[in-house]
Structure formats: C-alpha cells, structure tokens
Design goal:
Layout: H1 3-18, H2 23-37, H3 40-54, E1 64-70, H4 77-84, E2 98-104, E3 109-115, H5 119-122, E4 134-140, H6 145-160, E5 169-174, H7 184-190, H8 193-196, E6 202-206, H9 212-235
Parallel strand pairs: 1-3, 1-4, 4-5, 5-6
Antiparallel strand pairs: 2-3
Bound molecules: guanosine-5'-triphosphate (GTP) and magnesium ion.
Guanosine-5'-triphosphate binds near residues 71 and 116.
Organism: Hipposideros armiger
InterPro entries: ARL15 (IPR042292), P-loop_NTPase (IPR027417), Small_GTPase_ARF/SAR (IPR006689)
GO molecular function: GTP binding; GTPase activity; metal ion binding
C-alpha cells in the first residue's frame, strides 16, 4: 500500500466521521482498501491499529449504589459531598430533611442520600434507611464531649439497626484540620468501634475538607466493599 493510499484512507476516515457514519462502516472500508493492496502482515497490523483507534466505543456503564449519609448537624456531610461532586462547599446551609447527590467515581456512581443531623430531624432518620446498600457516618472529631457522646449513640444505633446492620460502613472522622480534633485512634476507642463493629465491614477514615485525597481513597475502599457484596449476591 502506497503512502498516497494510506493518506487517502485517513482522509476518507475523517470524512466518514464528520458525516457521522457508524464506526463499523469505517472499519469495513479500511478493511476493503487494505485488502486490495496490502501484504497480509501489514494488513492485519494496520487493521488492528485502526480498530483500536476507532472501535473504542462508549466506556462500560458504571455500577450505581444507593447510600445513606448520616451524622450530627455540623459534622460536614453536605460540605464533603459537595467537594466530591466538584461543587463549592462555601455557603452550604444546614440540611432540613434530606438531599440526594450522585457522586461520580471512576468505577462507580454513588447515589448518596444525606439526612439532616439536627435534633428534630434525627428521630426520622430510620424512615429513610430502606433500600440503602451502604452507610456513610460523618462525625466532627473536634466537637464537645456532649456532641461526641450523642454522635457515638447515633452511630451505635445505626450499626445495630436491622436495615443497616449488614451493610458496609464508612465512618469519616472529619474536622481533622482543627487543633482540638481527636486522633483516629482516640475516635476508634471512644466510639468502641472494634468491639461493636466486629465481623462487620467498616472503614474509619480521618479527614477534613482540605484533604480530598484521603477522602477519595476511603470512598474507593467503600466501593470495593460494595462490589464484594455484589459478587456475594451473584454467588448465592
Ligand atoms: N474546619 C472545618 N470546617 C468544616 C469541615 N467540614 C465541614 N466544615 C464546616 O462545618 C460547617 C457545617 O458543615 P455542613 O456540611 O453543613 O454539615 P452537615 O453535616 O451537612 O450538617 P446538617 O446538614 O445540618 O446535618 C460548614 O460551615 C463547613 O464549612 C472540616 O473538615 N473542617
Ligand atoms: Mg447537610
């Protein structure tokens, strides 16, 4: 095949793409042109190259998971989720009722239902648990002793709730940028996570609004747990 013919093939490919012909037609045409004038070794490698370039198609659909996100008011649920969605966390207001965000990751989309954490809303949380496949619990690591105790009670109730107790938990010890923040070890001990969550799948991640890498890493781990659960369901 001469240089001129190869150039012609490329030009014709450009033309077909511009005319929105389907990719298969491009390949068929190239196959035909190469068949006419190419030695067989050259033909197959060129075809492979064109196929790689043209036949990529849309990426496979990402699995979606429905999660519930809970935690006391001010823990930072909306702010963290907004940042994960590349939205500005400035001017975030307290969530009254609930709000839903589709949070995109490379290998999954998480449909996260955030439930407002104010005192008068928390008693309704359990009405919104149904259908959840995982739980995100956000706590303020720098909060007062009283609030930390309330957060611990809420987390324990969630870990033992019949609709949540078998689900993977991601526990975000947020506000780590503050000097008063408890370390991850302190949070683990104070929240009695090891005895209570024994045998469950959970991740405890220290984080803050400024540390998105740690946050994203913990979400990747959560997605792994969700996928494992999917595979188990298929095996059963
Ligand atoms: N310093 C610091 N401030 C944070 C952090 N995360 C959130 N905040 C601030 O905490 C305040 C409350 O954050 P929200 O995201 O509204 O908290 P929430 O958990 O959604 O609260 P509710 O919707 O009322 O349940 C906001 O002013 C945030 O900017 C953090 O990691 N560090
Ligand atoms: Mg909120």
């Amino acid at each position: 095949m001469t240089d001129l013919q190869i150039t012609e093939a490329f030009l014709y490919m450009d033309y077909l793409v511009a005319e929105k012909y389907i990719q298969l037609k491009i390949i068929n045409h190239l196959d035909y042109m190469l068949h006419l004038s190419c030695v067989s070794g050259c033909k197959s490698s060129m075809t492979t190259c064109f196929r790689a370039l043209c036949c990529k198609g849309p990426p496979p659909a990402r699995p979606e998971y429905d999660l519930v996100c809970i935690g006391l008011t001010g823990a930072g649920k909306t702010s963290l989720l907004s940042k994960l969605c590349s939205e500005s966390p400035d001017n975030v207001v307290s969530t009254t009722g609930f709000s839903i965000k589709a949070v995109p990751f490379q290998n999954a989309i998480l449909n996260v239902k955030e439930l407002g954490g104010a005192d008068n809303i928390r008693k309704y949380w359990s009405r919104y648990y149904q259908g959840s496949q995982g739980v995100i619990f956000v706590l303020d690591s720098a909060s007062s002793e009283d609030d930390l105790e309330t957060a611990r009670n809420e987390l324990h109730s969630a870990l033992q709730h019949p609709q949540l107790c078998t689900l993977p938990f991601l526990i975000l010890a947020n506000h780590q940028d503050k000097p008063a923040a408890r370390s991850v070890q302190e949070v683990k001990k104070y929240f009695e996570l090891e005895p209570l969550a024994r045998g469950k799948r959970w991740i405890l991640q220290p984080c803050s609004l400024d540390d998105m890498d740690a946050l994203k890493d913990s979400f990747s781990q959560l997605i792994n747990l969700l996928e494992e659960k999917d595979h188990e369901a298929v095996r059963m």
